[in-house]
Amino acid sequence: MVWIKILQWAVFLILLVFTFTAFPSYKAFYQSQFLPTVYETKPVDTNPDSLYLKIKHYADEHNVQPIDAKIDKVWKAIPGYNGLTINVKASYEKQKKAKAFRPDRLIYEEVSPSIHLSDLQPAPIFRGNPKKPMVALAFDVADGEEDIPKILNILSQANVSATFYLDGDWVKKHAELALMISDEGHEIGNYSLTQEDLSTQSKEEMVTKINKTNDIIEATLDVTPKWFTPPMGKYNQQMLNVAYSLNLMTTLWTIDAGDGNSGQPTSMVRRVANEVESGSIIRFSPTESTVKALEMIIGSIKKKGFQLGTLSELTNENRIDN
């Protein structure tokens, strides 16, 4: 039996020698079979590179939140205004080859507000959003035929589009002038059928006169108005509801540039220059005084850094450059 034990030990020693001959070291043996490589055990870098962090930090400081449309106690319906956010991922992809942070190569995206003008209950609009550096010129047209071509020429020379509210009866009598206004690219609004105080009339009369004016404008100009302004600026809630039911939004004005023919050009220019601000709607009548003052008024508005546009442009949520 002794020789059997000797044989077992001999076999064990032979296997042991073979093992350490094939694998020079114990460490090498176990590393080769069970341990990951040096590359596999390298710690994962979970921190974004400095360029990405710079873009993200800049975005956190410069993103602008959207502004919801609202009903103001004083100004009634005020339109919303888009926010502005930096697309961090897209901006990083655009700049990573250069490996340098450049604010002028960031990618911006507009963000819509949660509440829009169309979500509000019927209310008059007296102004645009005060954060939007734009001003709208609005002309109430029920007469002034001799001055309208001159006004259109001034607007054309200044490259300004405005909104013209047209009286239905006036359009029937002066279709060529109405077409001239529309063909110049100006926006057309509804100024009721005649210059009677609609706020004293029944709902049925309001519907009839506003609807008939729309029909006349559509038949003459092939344009469907989206804006309504009441004669003499007089309104009540019933009128607002009627206009709303006819897919018209009621607008008035922030600044009345002059009170008809009695407005003096110098006082008109001074009034607008002193009172105009972001979001202002400026009301005009087609008079000789307006003709004399209009070019200077436009110049004073532009000098303050405001863009000029139609009511639709003023009240939409799109951002514009300061």
Automatic annotation (TrEMBL):
<protein>
    <recommendedName>
        <fullName>NodB homology domain-containing protein</fullName>
    </recommendedName>
</protein>
<dbReference type="GO" id="GO:0016020">
    <property type="term" value="C:membrane"/>
</dbReference>
<dbReference type="InterPro" id="IPR050248">
    <property type="entry name" value="Polysacc_deacetylase_ArnD"/>
</dbReference>
<feature type="domain" description="NodB homology">
    <location>
        <begin position="133"/>
        <end position="309"/>
    </location>
</feature>
<dbReference type="Pfam" id="PF01522">
    <property type="entry name" value="Polysacc_deac_1"/>
</dbReference>
<dbReference type="GO" id="GO:0016810">
    <property type="term" value="F:hydrolase activity, acting on carbon-nitrogen (but not peptide) bonds"/>
</dbReference>
<dbReference type="InterPro" id="IPR011330">
    <property type="entry name" value="Glyco_hydro/deAcase_b/a-brl"/>
</dbReference>
<dbReference type="InterPro" id="IPR002509">
    <property type="entry name" value="NODB_dom"/>
</dbReference>
<dbReference type="GO" id="GO:0005975">
    <property type="term" value="P:carbohydrate metabolic process"/>
</dbReference>
